[in-house]
Structure formats: C-alpha cells, structure tokens
Amino acid sequence: MRLKFQWVLLVSLAVLSAGADDKDAADVLTNEAPSAERKFLILTVATEETSGYKRYQRSVKINGLPVKVLGLGEEWKGGDMANSVGGGQKVLMLRKELELHKDDPEKIIMFTDAYDVLFNANEEKILEQFHQFNARVVFSAEGFCWPDPNLASKYPEVERGKRFLNSGLFMGYAPELYKILNDGEIANDDDDQLYYTKIFLDEKKRGKLNIKLDHRSEIFQNLNGAISDVELRFIGTESHLENTVYNTVPLVIHANGPTKLFLNTLGNYIPKSWNAEEGCLNCWEDMNSLEKKKPKDFPKVVIGIFIENPTPFFEEFLHKFLALSYPKDKINLYIHNGASYHAKQIAGFVESHGKEYASVKLINHDENVKEWHARNLGIEECLKKKCEYYFNVDSLAQIDNPHTLKLLIEQNRPVVAPMMIRPYQAWSNFWGSLTTDGFYARSIDYMEIVQGQRRGLWNVPFVTSIYLVRGDIIHNPKTKPSYIYNLLDADMAFCTNMRNNDVYLYVTNRLDWGHLVTVDNFETHHFNNELYEIQNNRWDWEKRYLHVNYSQNLDTNLNVTMPCPDVFWFPMVTERFCDELVGEMENFGQWSDGTNTDPRLEGGYESVPTRDIHMKQIGLEPGWLHFLQHYVQPLQQRVYEGYWNDPPRSTMNFVVRYRPDEQPFLKPHHDSSTYTINLALNRPKIDYEGGGCRFLRYNCSVQDTRKGWMLMHPGRLTHYHEGLYVTKGTRYIMISFVDP
C-alpha cells in the first residue's frame, strides 16, 4: 500500500523562509539544561553531529521545544545498534541526568533517539496528548517483539493497536522514570529495549509505576512495520502525518529498524519543510550566499570530469562546461578519460583552455585506471588542493544553466545534486527510495519531483552523474567519500558509504539545471555518429540538427511559403545536418550507377533511376522514419488537411547526387508516393549552378533551393515534375516517397 498525498491547493513556486541558522538552533538544543522552572524537558543522546542530528535540531527549533543533549562529543560504547542489540549506554546517561530531576513530581521528561526522529508538534500539544493517557509513564509501541520474540506471549493482550514496547520514544514524570532507569544493572552494550521491556512485563512494577504503551500512535509513531498505516496530509500551509488505521495524528515520528529512508522522505515535508501552498520552505535555510563576494574570494573548487563511456554530443558538453559562470582561476580540473573515442577532443580542450584554470590533471584512457580508483583519486586531488568544494560532473550530464555551480554552493548542503532527467523520460540522476538490497525503488513522490510538479530540495538515498560535495565532508576522515564498497558500481558505492556515515544526499529541482544524455547503444563506427541519435537523444539531436525556425512551421498564424501550387517550402534542418549527411554518404561512397538496373530494389528495376544512396545502406533508415513521423508529418497535416496516416510509410529514402559529368538532370516523372519531400543539402551558386525542380502541369519551377529547407508536394497524378540541369559543381538532395 503506497503512501498517499492529499492536496488542498496547487503547488506554488513562491517559497517562504522558515530559516534559522545553527546559532539560533543552539539556543534551544544545547548541553546546558533549560530553565529549572520549565516543567517539561526532552532528553536525547547523540555523540556526533551528523546530518540526522541536525535535522533533529531543526524540528526542535521549529516547534520551540526544550531539549538537552547528552553525550555529544563522547565515545559511543553502546554497540552496533544498526545491525545488532545495544544502547545500554543511553540508559546509563539518562540515569545520571535524572538525578537532577528525581525529586520533582511535576517534571515531565521525554526521551527520544536523536538521529532518526522528527517532532511535528509543540510542547502544548505533546503535553495535552500525554495527559489524556492518565499515566505516569508512556512508552511508544510497535508491531514487533524485539530483541527477544520469546517474550511476546507475556505482553498484555491489546484489542486494537500495536502491542509491543519500543524504547526509542517514551515520556513520563521524573520520579517514575528515575526508578525505571535505576531498576537494575546494565552495561554500555546491553540492549536498552530489553531492559525496559522486562520492567514493563513485570505486572507489579507496571501497575505501581503506572506505565502504559501508546498502542494507537496518539503521541509516538514508530514506522517499522507501519509505513502503510500512515499518510501525509496537507491543509493549506500545514502538514502532518496521519495514522489512518487508528485515525490519530502522531506528534513524534521515529524511523526504527529499516525505515530511515522513509523518514528522510517525510522530512522533506515535515515539519514546515514543504507544503502545497508555499512550496519549499527549507530551501532557503542555512544558505551560503556568494552575492556580496568578489570573484577572487569565491571558494576553491575541484571539478572532476569523468568520461567513462563514449558520449554523444560531447562537443556540446564541453561548450557548456566552458560557459559555467564561475571564475576559472578558482577551479582546479581533474579529468578522467576512460574512452579512447574522446581522446582527441580532450587533448584539444586541455590545449586550448587548460591555462584558463588554476590547474589541470588529466588521466587518459591509456593509463588504464579503473573508474572506482579514478574517482577516489579525484577526492585525493581535492584534499591535495585544499578544496572547499568538489564538483563531480560525468560526461552524460549536460549543464544547460551556467549558474549551476554557484547556486549549488549557495545551497550549502553536504552533498547536493542538480536534478537532471533524460528528456521526455522519467529517468533521472537520483533515486527516491531503495529496495531492501539497496537498488532502485520509486518513492511516493518521485514522479511529482521529476515532472516538476513539486519544486524544492529533497533528501534522497542516491544521486549520480553530477553533484557537489562540501569540503568539510571530504576533509573529515569519518565522512571522506569513497567509491569502493564491496563490488558495487562506483556511484552506488559512493552513496552507500555516505548513507552509512549519516551524510545526507540532496537533489534540488528548484530550477532547471540541465539534462542527461543517453550513452546506451551509442554507435561510434559511423562517419558522423550523433546523426544517428535522433531516437536515443532527441532533445540534443534537435538542438544540433533541427532548423532554428522549424517551430514557426507549426504556427497557424504564419503563412507557409508556396512557390508553386500545392508545393510548400519549410525550414527543416541546420546546415550542419546537411553537411554531415552528405559527408556520411560520401564516406560510404557506394553511389548507384544511374541505370534502370538496381539490385537494391525488389525486382531489380528502377524506372526513373538516379545516382543515389539509400538511407538503409548506411543504417540511418530507422532514424529517418522517426524524423518523418515527428517532424515531417505535422507539416503535412497542416498543408494537406484531412490526410492522416500514422506513422507515415516510406521504403524509398535516399540522397541523390547531381553532377554534369554523371547525372545532370532527371526526366519528367510521377513519384510513387502520396506526397514527396525534397530536402536541399547544399548551396546553389556556391556549391553548384543550375538545378531545381520544374512542375510541368503548372509550368512552375523552384530554383535556388535553400540549404536545409524542404519542399513538400503531392506525388501521383497532379505534380508531374522533372529535375533541372546542374551545369556546374555537385548538387545533393534528400528524397522520401511517403506512403507509396
């Protein structure tokens, strides 16, 4: 059962700051005890200031809660609680702290874990719910009897609700809690939950101390085994978690067991992180503005460029990288080129632009450094240069927004990735969730994020391809990134190590940053390889090859040029497309002989022969049929209204070459088509002289055709036509007989 979202208002891109800097948070969350007059105190144990701890701080600050942290900076001796039992050290710390409050019968103490807990209510609401229990101590409840399942039968029966005690969340009056904490001996690495469980299962102690469990999550929500019980609700600017099984609104949320990632998702919304009316609230917290800094004072960055596979449109990648709006003398380049295909491009880039950067270190393909080690060496380069940030950029990440690096630095998160997707797909550079074995799983909000329906800053378990790592993470031995973890791929190893060190990974889609190219199935044996990428990388193909004015063809407010009756002229492709298609044909070189005998055709006979090469011969026919469907057919439907055949069919797609000494003209004929397209591939009066097409019935000729422009005319019956003499040079045209 998936978590559901209910929306009251549409997403607004306006965001309001709920910001608080670390200094403000420290005023609430501190090792110094709050005022003795306050009758409510939250205690937690945290030995390190991890990402989870800082999130805990934030939820405390937003709700104005009084918290005292125990153990900060001390050595953790409580065992490996993520994988086994432990936590006795927490009991011992609480025991010592409760000495200060044991004689105050009105003092209410709450204990929570620190790294995997969120508050979504203030003191007043918490105490109101607590008093309704009419108990002296309330423990949270869960559906599993852990760590000793043999004790399950000893628990009191429960008609409705979770039956078993969980020690990650509890609250009660100080005298009773003091007695519980001093009930018996416990070692640092003994299990704290087992300690509390045995006290609760003692009927006399349970009655004397008036201990109850929060069976229906009226205060505390443990998520393990209960993810399907809860739904995130939005009402205006307020957001909360509702337990739909018990119709309650839990106030403190605990990600016990394997539910840490789900809490990360919830933390993207509560408390006061994002709502449907105001959008992203936490985007503006803890920002590191560069606005008032001079370029010479900008942070020093090491940028790691990784070319691990032959990458289409790599030329554009380099152009966009050069266009980054960041002082180049503050950038140290580290380049790993694992693809021999790009060796010349990289060498040319370094030779032409290397001196613009503070430094350049290049590891080439012939050095045989594997990706895992190359990426680790990038981190070492960052340490060597005493960098303040490390920007990982893979060659498949096209940075369309030149301000990307600067804005990511200002976002000031441990690891933050600009969201990029493969255009027209849901494939992105982040995962919203993970399976139990650590692979991709779709989160509850993944589609809304990748489609831009929700804009903001999102805590996620996996990022790849392009991301910024803050320098303090790299310089801290405990959190230093590594791209090796068992036999995982480098990006999965990096993220696994970050998660294991409780370093949060973020992805931001506040703005549009760029996009991903698809490197799968990129063929590199052609003369112009990107020409074949129309289906795999349509977005980039359009940018390189589609005429800048193509979209005007679809504007019904503009007239279409008609040089002859029912003959229409459209700007279609760039000059580069024309040059590369001609180059592809000439490189192939197997032009037909211009006779009626043509073994390429069924039956082997051509009634109107030309000197040509078929698209099928060079492997470009599938891409060309895609072009006909997506770019030609919309124009046909505009000018030949009422005719519809989707997809258009064409078995004759070929480039014709006219030369005075080969075939200078084409005799009058009808085309075997419903309509024909004729795309000019070079320039009249420059590349050739003469040429053109004459429609005999109308005594109308189209000469001086424009390079990259397409003629479209009916095929059979009405538009009997001929190819006019080419008197000098070589003329190339691309022909398709559509729907024969």
From TrEMBL:
Q: Which cofactor does it need?
A: L-ascorbate
Q: Which GO terms describe its cellular component?
A: endoplasmic reticulum
A GO molecular function term, named singly, is:
procollagen-lysine 5-dioxygenase activity
Which superkingdom?
A: Eukaryota
Q: What is its EC number?
A: 1.14.11.4
Q: Name the chemical reaction catalysed here.
A: L-lysyl-[collagen] + 2-oxoglutarate + O2 = (5R)-5-hydroxy-L-lysyl-[collagen] + succinate + CO2
Top-level EC class as recorded in UniProt:
oxidoreductase
Q: Which Pfam families match?
A: 2OG-FeII_Oxy (PF03171), GT_PLOD (PF25342), OGFOD2-like (PF25238)
The protein's name in its UniProt record? procollagen-lysine 5-dioxygenase
Name the species this protein comes from.
Daphnia magna
